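Deliverable D2.4 — example input (structure tokens):
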């Protein structure tokens, strides 16, 4: 063995220190990200039948196509859940059976997922004058894509499936810039406009007919407690018919934003807001360098109500 081979061998030994190298098959017994993405791709085709071409299954009726897609999702999802539960397809029958039951329970919830996501499509169309059709929203809106992935992941989260729901939502995060934890509970007719930079925390509860813009954070006041805060309500509750404009931050598990509230851009909120309120940043002022012969009128934001209805 030459000097280079000896160096590499020593580095490998260092890197493997602490791993159980006597059971090499266990090193790779983890969920497969590419398979998880493939499952999401198939589920998108199932939820929106007829919208996305299925190039891997050659059948001539929609019913047969959906049947084969569901069987494929069931098989792959069961295998991935088996892995995250600590088993493998040739391992303990109890783990495999539990994984199969969780997969089937999830598949049965697809009708509800579809029901909710169709209301989200309608909310996007109704709320965005730049939208020309539902097809445009389904094919191209990143907000809808992130919401769909969250609704899928949330059902698996409720079934106590570890790891996989977070892998799904982080995939959506990487694709869209929208970060929604799978634990977040979201009602019908949810619309994310533009979307980039949105963060929605694990214990957030969102009602029906809620609309949020880019850069909004629904977060925790503090995470200094670390794991001691696990499972505690750390994120806000947003009730029905709320609009939250870009850059707003709403923080804290005790913070409740009441029905029909409008939150202005860049607001920072750590206390509850009563029903029907309009919240804005006080005395925001624009400054210009301009020709004195053409003066520009100064208007404080709290004197101007038109901004509530513009993007």
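Example output (designed residues):
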């Amino acid at each position: 063995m030459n000097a280079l081979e000896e160096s590499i061998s020593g580095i490998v030994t260092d890197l493997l220190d602490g791993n159980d190298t006597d059971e090499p098959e266990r090193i790779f017994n983890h969920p497969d990200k590419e398979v998880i993405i493939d499952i999401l791709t198939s589920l998108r085709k199932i939820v929106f039948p007829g919208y996305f071409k299925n190039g891997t299954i050659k059948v001539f009726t929609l019913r047969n196509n959906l049947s084969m897609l569901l069987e494929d999702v069931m098989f792959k999802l069961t295998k991935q859940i088996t892995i995250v539960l600590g088993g493998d397809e040739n391992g303990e029958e109890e783990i495999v059976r539990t994984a199969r039951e969780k997969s089937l329970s999830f598949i049965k919830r697809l009708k509800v997922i579809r029901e909710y996501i169709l209301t989200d499509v309608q909310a996007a169309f109704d709320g965005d004058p730049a939208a020309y059709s539902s097809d445009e929203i389904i094919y191209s809106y990143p907000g809808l894509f992130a919401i769909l992935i969250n609704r899928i992941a949330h059902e698996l989260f409720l079934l106590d499936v570890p790891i996989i729901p977070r892998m799904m939502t982080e995939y959506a995060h990487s694709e869209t810039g929208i970060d929604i934890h799978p634990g977040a509970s979201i009602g019908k007719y949810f619309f994310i406009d533009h979307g980039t930079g949105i963060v929605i925390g694990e214990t957030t509860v969102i009602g029906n007919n809620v609309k949020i813009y880019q850069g909004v954070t629904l977060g925790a006041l503090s995470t200094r407690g670390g794991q001691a805060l696990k499972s505690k309500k750390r994120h806000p509750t947003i009730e029905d018919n709320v609009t939250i404009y870009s850059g707003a931050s709403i923080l804290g598990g005790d913070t409740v934003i009441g029905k029909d509230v409008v939150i202005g851009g860049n607001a920072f909120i750590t206390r509850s807001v009563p029903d029907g309120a309009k919240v804005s940043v006080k005395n925001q002022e624009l400054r210009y360098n301009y020709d004195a012969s053409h003066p520009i009128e100064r208007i404080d934001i709290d004197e101007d109500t038109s901004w509530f209805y513009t993007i």
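The chain has nine helices and 14 strands.
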